[in-house]
Inverse folding.
């Protein structure tokens, strides 16, 4: 069974092709195009690249195309991307303006090019569908909640990969198996008296979030109704008081649209630093004494620690703190700042191991640290491929 995972941007197309034959999973091919101006041609070129590599003869060799879809009204989980689901995604375009519109356009073009190949979406909100209601509700009138105003949370594929892989690394195959079957089973299954596994997952990158994971299932996340929430993002604001927008509109003479644009394009790390939205540049400038860069760095670290602390309390401790994604996997100085002075909570970072770890799986805590500190490179595309396969397998057994 060969499954193509397509990652769609407004001007980019990236892909990975996985093979699940003979009870194994293999990455057969990966590639991508930037600055795409002709999406139908990009899809043709993708297929041509796969054919030239000898991994498919034609699109008929594909069991499905999987997509890491973000959010849709009243839809989550792993689903067939039909017209009804695309309409539900379009209803939430305003919540994910950088993600939903290009995905909808791209999915329609894939459907036109290969109408016989199933198109399957794994929504980023799926990992949080079984979280306790108290962790997903806002304190708003019931009619607001019914309209979809709630903590949907995101980066689900990344945090799910961390849930599975960290359980394996900690010798808890029972939890790893439970995490893998989470969507298929319709929620967390019993561990039959086994001790709980408590993981705090830090997806830190251009877009960042912290998620609490109990026995392979999310209990909550720093992100809320939209990707414009939680930790400061590269150029998106993160958490903000609800009264700030009407105040800014009145005081600064902005339109609502301009206020939203500034919060999504000129805020976050870019707004704090006044310099860049790239954490590598910010860290370098902070080291040279740039005050705005130092503020952005410190604010990011404080926000991450705030959410780690919140889930540490909710989980009654932690067995592992995991760093993943671009910043989490590559920037040792930020990991060190987040983990500083936490020995009272049982976290002790091995500074030498931390400094030596970059974009590779590793344990970076000291041997006597009560809480393991891990770096786990994420693999969101593999999660999408796995869930797409499970979706197809489930269809054949019904």
């Amino acid at each position: 069974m060969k499954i193509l995972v397509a990652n769609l941007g407004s001007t980019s197309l990236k892909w990975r092709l996985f093979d699940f034959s003979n009870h194994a999973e293999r990455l057969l091919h990966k590639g991508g195009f930037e600055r795409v101006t002709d999406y139908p041609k990009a899809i043709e070129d993708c297929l041509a690249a796969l054919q030239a590599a000898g991994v498919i003869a034609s699109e008929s060799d594909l069991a499905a195309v999987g997509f890491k879809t973000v959010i849709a009204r009243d839809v989550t989980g792993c689903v067939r991307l039909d017209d009804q689901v695309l309409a539900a995604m379009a209803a939430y375009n305003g919540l994910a303006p950088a993600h939903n519109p290009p995905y909808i356009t791209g999915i329609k073009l894939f459907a036109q090019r290969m109408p016989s190949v199933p198109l399957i979406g794994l929504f980023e909100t799926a990992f949080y569908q079984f979280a306790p209601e108290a962790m997903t509700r806002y304190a708003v009138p019931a009619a607001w909640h019914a309209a979809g105003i709630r903590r949907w949370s995101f980066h689900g594929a990344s945090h799910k990969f961390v849930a599975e892989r960290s359980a394996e690394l900690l010798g808890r195959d029972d939890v790893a198996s439970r995490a893998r079957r989470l969507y298929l089973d319709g929620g967390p299954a019993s561990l039959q008296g086994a001790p709980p596994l408590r993981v705090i997952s830090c997806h830190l990158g251009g877009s960042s979030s912290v998620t609490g994971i109990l026995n392979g299932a999310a209990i909550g996340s720093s992100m809320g109704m939209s990707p414009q929430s939680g930790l400061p993002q590269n150029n998106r604001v993160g958490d903000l008081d609800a009264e700030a927008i009407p105040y800014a509109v009145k005081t600064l003479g902005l339109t609502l649209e301009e206020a939203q644009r500034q919060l999504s394009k000129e805020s976050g790390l870019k707004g704090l630093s006044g310099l860049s939205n790239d954490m590598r540049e910010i860290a370098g400038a902070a080291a040279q004494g740039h005050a705005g860069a130092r503020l952005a760095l410190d604010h990011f670290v404080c926000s991450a620690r705030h959410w780690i602390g919140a889930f540490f309390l909710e989980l009654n401790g932690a067995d592992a703190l995991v760093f993943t994604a671009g910043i989490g996997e590559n920037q040792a100085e930020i990991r060190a700042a987040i983990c500083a002075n936490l020995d009272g909570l049982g976290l002790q970072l091995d500074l030498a191991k931390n400094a030596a770890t970059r974009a590779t799986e590793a344990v970076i805590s000291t041997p006597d640290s009560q809480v393991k500190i891990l770096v786990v490179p994420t693999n969101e595309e593999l999660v999408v491929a796995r869930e797409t396969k499970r979706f197809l397998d489930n269809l054949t057994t019904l």
